[in-house]
């Protein structure tokens, strides 16, 4: 099996866990977008509504790399689905920051009301053309705030749609 096929299989499992599903599977769930209807029903049924464990599987396989001090357990499922999608489309995602204490946020130059304080933001790097990554992120409804910093770090959060 190729690395790309393996990555897609892990991402499909991650999305099956992250997306809300009915007991009968993705095929019959009217709340799921049609693009997810081809997820295997067994995977969806097994996943149920447990905590998102799909992204940790991506971490275990090296498709998502975590910097120490960047916990994923508190990040909203919608943002985790975006990170999984990024990994599938653009390759390895390196998560630099998620939750920050007030002191760490100040040292990082973060805004006083930063969504990092509530673990509703993710800063990451991805080795891909920035214009393609930013276009993909703009297309995702889960992404509110979006910023590409000069050092290559990209910020996403689930707040109101904005850029600065």
CATH class category name = Alpha Beta
Beta percentage is 5-15%
What is the average per-residue confidence, as pLDDT, rounded to a whole number?
78
Tally of alpha and pi helices: 6
**How many strands?**
6
Oligomer: single chain
For the largest sheet, list the strands in their spatial order. Answer: 1-2-3-5-4-6
In terms of per-residue confidence, which ranges show pLDDT below 50 for 5 or more consecutive residues? 18-52
| Total discrete domains | 1
What's the CATH architecture name? 2-Layer Sandwich
CA distance, first residue to last residue: 42 Å
What overall form do the CA principal axes indicate? Answer: globular
By secondary-structure content and strand pairing, the structural class works out as alpha/beta
Q: Estimate the helix proportion, in percent.
A: 25-40%
SSE run: HHHEHEHEHEEE
Q: Radius of gyration, rounded?
A: 16 Å
Biggest sheet statistics: 6 strands, mixed
Could you give the topology of this structure?
Blueprint: H1 3-18, H2 41-47, H3 54-60, E1 64-66, H4 77-90, E2 93-97, H5 102-107, E3 121-126, H6 130-139, E4 145-148, E5 154-157, E6 162-163
Parallel strand pairs: 1-2, 4-6
Antiparallel strand pairs: 2-3, 3-5, 4-5
């Amino acid at each position: 099996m190729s690395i790309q096929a393996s990555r897609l299989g892990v991402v499909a499992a991650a999305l099956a866990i992250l997306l809300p599903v009915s007991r009968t599977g993705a095929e019959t769930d009217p709340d799921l977008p049609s693009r997810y209807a081809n997820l295997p029903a067994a995977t969806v049924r097994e996943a149920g509504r447990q905590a998102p464990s799909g992204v940790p599987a991506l971490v275990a396989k090296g498709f998502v790399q975590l910097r120490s001090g960047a916990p994923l357990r508190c990040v909203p499922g919608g943002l985790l689905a975006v990170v999984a999608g990024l990994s599938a489309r653009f390759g390895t995602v390196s998560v630099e920051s998620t939750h920050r204490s007030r002191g760490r946020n100040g040292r990082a130059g973060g805004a006083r009301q930063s969504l990092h304080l509530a673990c509703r933001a993710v800063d990451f790097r991805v080795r891909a053309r920035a214009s393609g990554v930013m276009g993909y992120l703009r297309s995702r409804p889960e992404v509110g705030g979006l910023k590409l910093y000069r050092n290559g770090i990209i910020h996403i959060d689930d707040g109101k749609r904005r850029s600065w």
